[in-house]
Structure prediction request, 138 residues.
Amino acid sequence: MGMGTGMGAWGTGAFDNDPACDWTNDLSDASDLTFVHNTLSSADEVDDDELDVGLSAEAVAACEVIARLQGRAGRRDANTKVVDEWVRAHPVKPSPDLVKLATFVLDRVVAGSELAMLWARDQAWRASVQDLRKRVAG
Prediction:
């Protein structure tokens, strides 16, 4: 894997990295979508050069929550367990605005984030994010 940054990634999935796993642990304390919204707002508001690996990975994880809440889950495995449990316990419908924000942030992550640069030569990562975007947008 072309991860020279020691980010702690073991796969191309949304939850196959340390920042996303830390993020999901915080999600498990959340009672509604405020935490998801705040994550996406942060990724939306920073300048391009501040859209770093950690924030991008968190934003991708947040988008995965939005896809799952709409009944369009990606793959399920040990790394997605916390998210899957949270979604089951909080069956809320994301607002159209939140869905729009999520797709916008995903486009930003793909277009120019530090995360996209790390995965620049990896088609599997891009395919996984494009699949996620379809599931978010419906």
